[in-house]
Write a structure and sequence with these properties.
Layout (H helix, E strand, L loop, with lengths): L3 E6 L5 H4 L6 H7 L9 H8 L3 E9 L5 E13 L3 E9 L8 H16 L4 E7 L3 H9 L3 E9 L5 E10 L1
Parallel strand pairs: 4-5
Antiparallel strand pairs: 1-2, 2-3, 3-4, 5-7, 6-7
Length: 165
């Protein structure tokens, strides 16, 4: 059965499907640092009310049944020239299939083409090495770091990256 990948604006009804995506406290921290595990609908709704272009990646089967398999959004849109990609996550059983690349490329293109941004930024924790390597392969370059605290109140380094138009 052939499946088609598409993207659309996230709707409130989609949010409950995202609750099962972060499998551990650490995954949730990387996806949504201020949330507490397990993720709740209330936490997600509050976070997304402050975000822009919340986007779901959907898989559509030949019967047109849609399944949400990814999510991301934009935040901190500054002077209409830069914005950050945030809350990036792929459904656990769909990871390592190239879908993260499609999702990030969609968000980058949305920033450059629809919002006419000059730069798209994102932030990633140093310990999330798989994601850091992935972002660098997409062309993101590190430009700053800051120290934060993780969910166990341990010091952790946050790396800021950007890609220019």
């Amino acid at each position: 059965m052939k499946h088609r990948i598409a993207f659309r604006a996230a709707q409130k009804a989609d949010l409950s499907e995202l609750l099962s995506f972060p499998l551990t406290q650490q995954e949730l921290f990387y996806f949504f640092p201020s949330a507490t595990f397990p993720l709740t609908l209330k936490q997600l709704e509050r976070q997304l009310s402050e975000r822009h272009k919340s986007t779901v990646m959907i898989e559509q089967d030949s019967f047109h049944k849609e399944t949400i398999i990814g999510f991301a959004n934009l935040y901190n849109v500054k002077n209409k020239r830069i914005a950050f990609i945030g809350n990036v996550i792929i459904k656990p059983e769909k990871r390592a299939q190239g879908l993260g690349k499609k999702l990030l490329e969609t968000m980058i293109n949305s920033g450059f083409e629809q919002l006419n941004l000059n730069e798209v930024h994102l932030s990633c924790y140093k310990e999330n090495t798989i994601a850091l390597m992935f972002y660098k392969r997409l062309g993101f370059k590190a430009y700053a770091t800051e120290i934060r605290k993780d969910f166990n109140d341990q010091v952790i380094e946050l790396i800021h990256l950007r890609i220019k138009k």
